[in-house]
Batch of 2 targets.
Target 1
Amino acid sequence: MYKTTKEENEILTRTGKGTPMGEFLRRYWWPIGISAHLKERPTFIRVFGEDLVLFRDAKGKIGVIGAFCAHRRANLCLGDVERDGVRCRYHGWLYDSDGQCVQIPGEPPNSELKKESIRLPAYPVEELGGLIFAYFGPQPAPLVPRYNFLVGEGEVYITIQGFQNCNWLQCVENGMDPVHPSFTHGGAWPDIMSTEPELGFHETEWGMVYKAYRKTKEPGMLNYREHHLLMPGVSCGGSGGRYLSGAQAGTPVSAARWSVPIDDTHTMLMRVRFKPSDNPGKYEGDPFSKRWKPPQEFIVPYKEYRDSDAPVLGYPIPPLHFIEDGMVVDSMPPIADRENENLGPAIDDGIIKLRQMYLREVGKMQRGEDPKCIVRDPEKNKEIVIPAYEKWVPESERNLGKTAAVG
Ligand code: FES
Ligand SMILES: [Fe+2]
């Protein structure tokens, strides 16, 4: 039976510079912010354990540079954005979007401290579909993949869905786990949750797909979920259709969720929802504007006794699917001890294939090859259509084989 060893778990979960997975993940573009949010103030971010400041200078150019000023290490997030960069709030050193120090107020021109010799780490940035993507890997950088949910015709909604106090991989694995909705999402989606779905898992050009069919209350009709995992950590599904009002017609809605490693035990979930223009449904209100905001530790020993003299025991989960996911995933150890798992060859086939795929693709990168889902050909990148969705289909349409258009 398949087991992930302790050593493999280390490889899969560690994202620091120089680690195998850390180097692998740096080969891809990652969303680190939302374009519309970045106005006149800089913000402090952390990606792969590296402290950075994100800003848009007054010329509109975005910078992602080391957070700590090269002078005496004040955090530049307190600074002011100017035409040519961000100015440190402490003694006014000015840095451009390439991290180059361009002004040291008070030092005379003949000083032996030369601004030209001062440079903070800086990373390339691109905006696409309302997101700010950054690239932390070696040059030449690949293209930012133009997925349909970023560039297709329709409405795009972007939310930072939450912050998890856990490793990035357990967030990703949740998206390749088609059994959990029956149990985890019984609160949010009580309608289709038969507990023994029929499953199919396949590798695709971009990552993996799972197909899951469940019986519904309507005889002869099945609930069909097709979820994709796009390397290195984008989960795509179609459950957002449940929050649409109006006729269900046209191209189904889809959503993508990036699990962005803040560090090895914290993860940001960036979600994009896409409603194609030929779909007449409407989102009323915005169920997705709610965040998953866990307290620093929401499960601690004797929590109820700390909080109250007359405790009500238990940990209620609000019936919203991304909060249900968030709480369950966060309830695992911050870096799950996979060597102690017992995986089911059928129910966990997706998890097993996913881990094997990561290890294989990391190996490819180490041999100097481009791993899966690195896009360099502009022709191929006009629009990458990912058929992730949830639909209700007649039993005669059941097909667990490899039918995905991206296969
Ligand atoms: S610490 Fe930034 S200018 Fe002194
Ligand atoms: Fe889920």
Target 2
Amino acid sequence: MTVLAYLADSNAGYVLSFRALVTGLPPGGVVLDRTYFYPTGGGQPCDRGTIELDGVRYPVVEVSKTGPSVIHRLGRPSGRSSTAPGLRIGAEVTGEIDGARRAAHRQAHTAQHLLSARIFALTRLRTRAASIRAGGGRVDLEGAWPTAPTLAEVETDVNDVRQRPVPSHIRFLSRAEWESAPDPRTGLVLLPPQVDPVRLIELAGVDRCPCGGTHVRSTEEIGALHLATAVVPGTTATRIEFTLDEAGPPTPTG
Ligand SMILES: [Zn+2]
């Protein structure tokens, strides 16, 4: 099994370098005892970067979660010396995460929560699916867009809230506690039965949402959102796509 170290708290989403032990070597990949690499899932793409041992750097090209293990799929190594023995069980390696890609995913993911929260506050439409990428993302709403407000009004609102700015916190609740007081926006979202405790991303006074993704510490790290509607083929759902302007610098640890 792999400890998902990036889940721990707000600061863990900013860790870009770590040490870990090799616990498995599936074909083309490596499993570590713990990792800060985010695996593809929950609408968020995986981190990329490198894993290094004995001066040999292996590019991490894909990260996925299979059962309790995170598999880092590796590309062709660089810096290999003829004497390097290669990855082996029990070796201590250094993981380095691509910081620009991680930052872009943090920004887009928190922007998506903020957008879903403000859409719900203004229209009562819940987000039933969402995905993000560097520089933007999309939310699929369970229903048709109302006659008011307009999308432009929602865009103004969400950017006003973003600029306050709003601090973000991670809080763990027991599943029973979470189920006893579900949030109106998310309801009892379909969490796998084994999820306990529940990891909540809180945007102070604005939103709380169960989520395993990586997030910014403050909305001041997010650039302006621009919204557009898109058709979801074969459904009556409303899809809102968003793009993000260039973001501000990370907020200090605290
Ligand atoms: Zn999320």
